[in-house]
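Sequence design from tokenized structure. All designs in this work follow the same two-part layout: the structure record, then the generated sequence. An example of the structure record is given first.
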């Protein structure tokens, strides 16, 4: 292996990196990649099945097959040029490194407590051997496994997490969907302001240097007695058009019996009920009202305004505790245990739809006929027409799974993604690499999408206190 010929870094990839992102080998720019033989063995054992991990492994195998095709032993030893495969936007292939396979025995004596028969320890042994054999090359182990990185640190091996899948560096930098305006906003922007009314909505055309920092469907407000709340409808350079937000805190403007209890909930209802918004993301901790608001708006649009044929609700089935095993029944019956939040909120909404117990029961049965529960496992290849699709617990989805779901939307379909980034249960996913974070960041510039982060819990004083102190 002619690794020392260049002064570039050499990244040794752990198996979980390739399982997580099959395009990882193309994500290290001009630096070189090394894949140990034990990683290929683990990939071979994980390629069978219909899970996303198995699909990712098969895609990795296809990439490696394309790279190694028509290559002789000398070419493999010298490193396969990753630019052989066109991957990613144009221009990304110009400066890209080489891929090296382990073609001979590489071993280094590990501590007695780390036997080499274990795959992770074999990889650590190979990294140590490479570090010793190529002292002028910066050898770095890349792994999604925290314990693997801890063991590497104990052996004085440079180890890093795989960062390319992270949408942002710090979750605190994630777009919140709302912004407080400066107290002197009108003094700065009132001179050239234009206002008009259209279809019972009030609009303002604002000019100013700070306008370019706004996003479509972002919610703006003033923290004073005026109670000014507006939605950015369009941004063109230093000119923006604002629309006054509707106030759903008033009982006369309730949505299926639900009133907004705070500013963020009011913004959420504005986005959920806007016919020009096709994609809504709602973030928030437990008890902020994400599911209740999404369901109330869906029932209003489906049963009162006839904008959609039915409501479809789905979620990733990741258990919090031990798995209870296989469940009997149809697809909807199998999903029922995962949909406790749906049932709880439908009970609340049904209780507000009538005065007598009979009316409430009839209303709840009518709502259940319009709400369908579907499993994520059977979404591939489907197309939803004129549906109101709610993706619950979306923080547990990978960016690829999120793309698969959102691309199911046909004409007239609206998708609502709700989740709490503090409650991720999927292995190797973090708040910065979650599919929910991914879509919030990628859709913030689209005029037909909206996002809002709900901040205040409204479930109960007990739930609010527990959320703060536990």
């Amino acid at each position: 292996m002619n690794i020392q010929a260049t002064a570039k870094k050499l990244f040794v990839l752990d198996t979980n990196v390739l399982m997580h992102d099959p395009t990882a080998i193309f994500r290290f720019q001009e630096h070189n990649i090394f894949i140990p033989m034990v990683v290929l063995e683990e990939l071979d054992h994980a390629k069978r099945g219909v899970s996303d991990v198995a699909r990712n492994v098969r895609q990795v195998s296809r990439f490696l097959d394309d790279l190694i095709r028509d290559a002789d032993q000398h070419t493999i030893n010298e490193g396969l040029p990753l630019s052989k495969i066109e991957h990613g936007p144009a221009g990304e292939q110009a400066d890209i490194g080489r891929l090296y396979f382990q073609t001979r025995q590489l071993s280094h004596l590990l501590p007695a407590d780390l036997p080499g028969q274990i795959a992770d320890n074999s990889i650590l042994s190979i990294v140590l051997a490479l570090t010793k054999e190529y002292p002028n090359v910066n050898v770095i182990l890349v792994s999604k496994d925290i314990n693997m990185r801890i063991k590497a640190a104990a052996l004085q091996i440079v180890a890093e997490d795989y960062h390319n899948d992270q949408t942002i560096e710090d979750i605190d930098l994630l777009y919140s969907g709302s912004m407080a305006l400066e107290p002197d906003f009108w003094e700065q922007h009132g001179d050239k302001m234009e206002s008009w009314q259209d279809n019972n909505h009030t609009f303002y055309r604002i000019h100013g240097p700070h306008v370019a920092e706004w996003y479509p469907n972002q919610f703006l407000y003033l923290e004073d007695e005026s109670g000014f709340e507006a939605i950015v409808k369009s941004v063109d350079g230093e000119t923006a058009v604002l629309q006054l937000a509707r106030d759903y805190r008033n009982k006369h403007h309730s949505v299926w019996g639900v009133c907004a209890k705070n500013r963020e909930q009011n913004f959420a209802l504005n986005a959920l009920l806007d016919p020009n918004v096709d994609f809504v993301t709602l973030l928030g901790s437990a008890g902020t009202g994400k599911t209740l608001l999404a369901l109330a708006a869906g029932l209003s649009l489906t049963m009162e305004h006839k904008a959609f044929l039915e409501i479809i609700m789905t979620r990733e089935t990741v258990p919090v505790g031990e798995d209870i095993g296989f469940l009997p029944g149809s697809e909807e019956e199998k999903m029922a245990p995962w949909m406790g939040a749906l049932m709880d909120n439908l009970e609340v909404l049904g209780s507000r739809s009538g005065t007598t117990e009979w009316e409430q029961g009839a209303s709840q049965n009518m709502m259940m006929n319009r709400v369908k529960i579907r499993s994520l496992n059977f979404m591939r290849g489907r197309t939803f027409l004129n549906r109101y699709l709610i993706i619950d617990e979306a923080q547990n989805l990978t960016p690829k799974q999120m793309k698969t779901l959102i691309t199911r939307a046909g004409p007239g379909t609206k998708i609502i993604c709700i989740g709490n980034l503090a409650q991720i249960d999927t292995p190797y996913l973090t708040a910065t690499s979650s599919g929910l974070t991914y879509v919030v960041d990628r859709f913030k510039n689209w005029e037909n999408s909206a996002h809002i982060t709900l901040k205040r819990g409204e479930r109960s004083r007990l739930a609010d206190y527990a959320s703060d102190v536990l």
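Residues 52-68 form the longest helix (17 residues). We note this feature because it recurs in several other targets discussed in the main text.
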